[in-house]
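Everyone, study these two lines:
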Amino acid sequence: MPSQPTEPSPRGIQLSRSVREAIAPPIPKAQAWAASYTPPPNTSASHFQSAGADSNTEKDTGELLNLSQGVPGDPPHPLLLASLAQTSADPQSAGYGPILGERALREAVCGEMEFVYQWNGNGDTSRRDDGERQASGEDGGAAGVDAIGEEGTVSSVPAPTQGEGPPTWEEVAITSGCNQAFFNTVMALCDRGDKVMIPVPWYFNMLMTFQILGIQPLPLPLDPSNSFLPSITAARDLLDSSEGHDVKAIVLVTPNNPTGTTYPPGLISQFADLARERGVVLLVDETYRDFICAPRPPQLALAPLLPALRQDLSSTSDRLFDRLELFARLVTSVRGWSVSAQGGFFSYVRHPYIQDGKAPVPSERVSEVLAKRCGVVTLPGSFFMPERGSSEWRSLEEQASPLVEDRWIRFAVANVSDEVVSKVPGRLEMLNGLAGELGWTVEDD
């Protein structure tokens, strides 16, 4: 991903060097691909139809399928809409509120954390997974979480030790989205030049935070063959390496963006133990567990409703799980395509294209053609990786990480219907059909 332009703005204002040298937001590039798509003229629905589609499959008329946005597709719950209408009508909700957010919502968040993580009298936790399906891996065991970050919330205090309970409302802050929560937390914890260990692929806005604040990301490569789960052994080895000094924090994102992988409680517990052992902070971002955004009127509207919304959140999670299962079944029916990991809002898909006899086609090029020629908007895995040639990229090469193959694409399914998902395999087969024209070869698994 390119850095920001170095020239002054049109009004002659010179931005700070850290802002200028930060990566440019990649989303506008995907939006531009979408804008350039035109459905092929004079084609029947069968032009896009998958060879394996049955008679009940939704007919594909060639409209743009946007699977790039990691946002919910369902409208807010009626209880929240009614409460929001009531609180928005109160003139007091338009005034300044507490700096760290409304106390009622902060108390409600603590109650939800206690419910989700089931703190017992000894300060230990057992993670609930109502409606939540987790990735399996070699790591498992007892549950435990150091910190929780929902969309708009963050608590970066250490996990309760023996005899302590769940976080109190004073330890919770409500922010305008998780990007602000992450930026504020890293700014509070780290000085310029410090390091933060973070699994790669990573969410690109986190890299922007590091670059603007002068923090050095320490990549922890994930293994595609292990569902992109982070390895506690690799993390320990990285901390013990020459690169591991001055690490102030370890970041985990679960359900992960972009891979969708949900980390088992035992794995999070092991990272919590490692963080305590090394005296660093563990930051756990759970944006895609419960997707909630809270400016002031919604804060006031949401505070009394969180327990009442538990069943709705669980039902939404079940529907998303079923849609991911449908997506995986359909995508893997297309020659060469496979799902490496999925969960939360996302499916992380491995494309089958190689060029020049052996080199994988870069994910950005595949996503571009998929959008421009086939009308499916996605985000390439390269958007979630270090820049080629950077020190972080060279570190991946030195570790012989398969991530440098750059052949994964993120599909977001939360904001689309099952009918839209059913049209994806036909578009992928269409792209397979274009491979020869593009100089690509479809590599079978």
Observations:
- The chain is about 35% helix and 15% strand.
- Residues 310-331 form the longest helix (22 residues).
- Residues 46 and 425 are 12 Å apart (CA to CA).
